[in-house]
Structures are given as structure tokens and as C-alpha cells.
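Review box. Two proteins, two foldings.
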Amino acid sequence: IVEDWEDWSKWISCRGGIGVPSVKSWESWWEEEQEHLRHTGFVGRLFEIILSIRFFIYQYGIVYHLNMTTSSRQGIRLSIVVYGLSWLVIGAVLIILKIVSMGRMKFSADFQLMFRLLKLLLFIGCIVTIAMLFYFLNLTVGDIFQSILAFMPTGWALLQISQACRTLVKGIGMWGSVKALARGYEYMMGVLLFAPIAILAWFPFVSEFQTRLLFNQAFSRGLQIQRILAGSKKQA
């Protein structure tokens, strides 16, 4: 499992380029997954954008049922305000991704301390923003989890729309942030897939069950593998 995780980490961290196959680099694989959009006309891209809008409706549905909106007398009006604030949060996340990517290119090689201070300031800013939401808008812990459920599909919709409008996104210089966001989704999916496998690997009965399953036919015939191996060693 450790070797699989290391191979996967190398694959997702490797930068793509000309001549780099998709099995060696996540970026090359990601570019191949968007190959159909390069041969799609305006109508196809428009339908891609329209289909992605459904995630925004899902986002508003979760925002409407947040504790800060349901417990307020203003109702729908406050839910619209919170929905607008959620878009500000999404915009802030994209700007942070852009700042981090620019800081990595400018500071990571020669100014490690400056780059770490930049990430520290961004982290403190996020904590202060969450604290202000708790204080002024009566945000709860449950609202945070619901907001995560709302932001995940919204971010995916933004990825789909950005891929459909690739030329425009590259023109405004946000393609690097889109790529970083897509890589973040892949990291989360990788953790979700590897985490239960790693947890199960810690239990000894799982390994015994796997061995029993692999050599079930040999065990059913009464073969004793250890005696066979011991006999071969004595003959040697």
C-alpha cells in the first residue's frame, strides 16, 4: 500500500509536457480527458456550461437550509445574502490559489521564508474570516459541514465551465488556479480511496483473510505449504 501511495503521489505531482505519457503524469492525463472539448463547437460548449449550472442550484438549496438562515426572520432575503457571500468565499479561494501559485514560482526557490510567511498570512486570514462569521452571522459547526457539501460540487462546476471556456480562462491568467483546483480534487479522491485500504491493512485478520482467499484451493486440498518449503530447503 505504501508503494502504491508513493507511485500515485509521484504520478499526480509530475508535471506534464510534450512526450510525457498519461501513465507518468497527472497533467498529461488531465489534458487527455479534455481532448473532446478541443473538437467541440460552440453549441457543445454551451450545453456543457448549462449542465454545470445545476450544481449552483444545489449550492443555493444547501445555503437556504443553513442554520443561520432558517433561524432568522428575514428568511429568503438573508439566504440570498448568504448565497452571495458564499460566492465571495469561492472567489477568495480562487484568488488564494492564484497567489499561492505565483508565490511558489517567485519565492519557493530563493525565498523559502517569504513563501511560508505568505501561506501563514493566508491561513490566519481564513481563520479570522471564519471567526467573524461565527460572531456576526451565528454560524455553527453544522453550517460549516453543510457549506463544504455546497462548495464541493460548486467547485466542480467551475472546473467544468473553465474547461469549456479554456481560451478565455487562459486569457485572464487563471488557468493555473484552475489546474491547482483540479489537482486538489484529485488529491481528495486519492485520500478517500487510500484511507480505508490503509486502515484495513493495519488489522492482522484482513491479511490472514486475504491469504486464505488467495490460497483457498490449496488449503481445501490439504496442501501444507510450509512443509513443502521445508522439504525443499532440506534437499538443497
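Next protein.
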Amino acid sequence: MGDRQLKIDAKLIQEEAAQKHGILLSEKRAAELAQEVNRLNSATAEAAKAIDLNDDPTVFIATLRQLKR
């Protein structure tokens, strides 16, 4: 999979909200949500580096909690 990470932008957030949920978001709100999604994606990607697919599933959650600190 590599270290390439998709960056989510406000336009994508607006399009998905409208198409999938019928929600119209302002550019400002979409930008805020995009920033949050990217932050969460980064934390998840970082935590995923620290686990092995053969690990106990609870290790992933524990790793995310540890990164949050």
C-alpha cells in the first residue's frame, strides 16, 4: 500500500455530503470537516504502522489511544 495518503479536500466533502446525504455545506464548514477527516486519517495511518495484522484487534484501539496523548 505504501506511504501515499489521499488528502481529502473541501470540495470532495461538499460533493459527498450532497450526493450521499442531501446535505448542503458551506465552503467554510466543508473545509473544517476536511481538516478533521485528514487529521483522523493521519492518526489511523500512523497507528496502522505499529500493528501487525496478526495482532489482537484490541491492539489497534490501544495504539490509537496512545497516539492521542
